[in-house]
Amino acid sequence: MIKAVFHRVPIVLALSGLAAILCVQCANASSLSGDLTADNAFYAYISTDNTVLGTLVAQGGNWGATSTFSNFILTPGQTYYLQVEAINYGGPGALIGQFDLSDTGFQFANGSQTMLTDTTDWLAVYNNANSDPNAQQPWVTPTGSVYSLGTNGVGPWGTVSGIDGNADWIDATVLGLSDCQFCTVDFSTPITSDSSTAPEPGTLGLLGGALTGFLALARRRVIR
């Protein structure tokens, strides 16, 4: 009995070591945060495929109230897309926001870890004429450019709190102020991984294989 317990100690230590490695990786994981609103409502998602609607991370139904999401963990080596469906139900409509990455493991389309809504780094597309703020719409992949209705502070919205003053109110370029009184517009922008920070292929697989072999050897010793 004493011998069996003795041989289980290295197993416990090995498992603890693996857990420690995984915990270090979790602690160093990159994450995405954002502050945004839209006239009039929006749903924001994060996806690994821009043709497919991703995971819902934020939503709002009042353009005067800024919505926030934080600490969405990003997997190294994976490309992500921030997707927003903006729903307008009367008058001018647009999207505004600011977004941040926790470290240099990922970057926005502008090459940095901070991005605002602008006319350079976003794509947009008219979705449909449905202006129901309580109904999430089927995703239409954005392919067109956007235009600015002005930066934060411009009328008719005035200054939206919690969002950088240089952020643009953006809309699809195929639409004018009077063209989308009641409709849904889809926006997206990519978030790419810095390949130099991604784990080497198979690293965890090799570690897991080595641990499996060690455990098998330890079991044989216990049986003896």
CATH architecture of the largest domain: Sandwich
How much helicity do the residues have? 10-25%
Taking all Cα atoms into account, the compactness measure Rg is: 24 Å
What fraction of the residues are assigned to beta strands by DSSP?
35-45%
Major sheet: 6 strands, antiparallel
Which consecutive residue ranges, at least 5 long each, have pLDDT under 50?
2-9, 11-26, 203-211
CATH class of the largest domain: Mainly Beta
CATH topology of the largest domain: Jelly Rolls
**Number of extended strands:** 12
User: Could you tell me how far the N terminus lies from the C terminus, measured between alpha carbons in angstroms?
Assistant: 11 Å
Whole-number count of domains: 2
In short:
With 224 residues, the chain is an alpha+beta fold. The chain has helices at residues 2-27, 203-223, and strands spanning 30-39, 41-47, 55-60, 67-74, 80-89, 94-101, 106-108, 114-116, 123-128, 146-151, 168-172, 182-193. Mean pLDDT is 82; it is low at 2-9, 11-26 and 203-211.
Q: What attributes does this structure have?
A:
2 domains; 224 residues; Jelly Rolls; 2 helices; alpha+beta
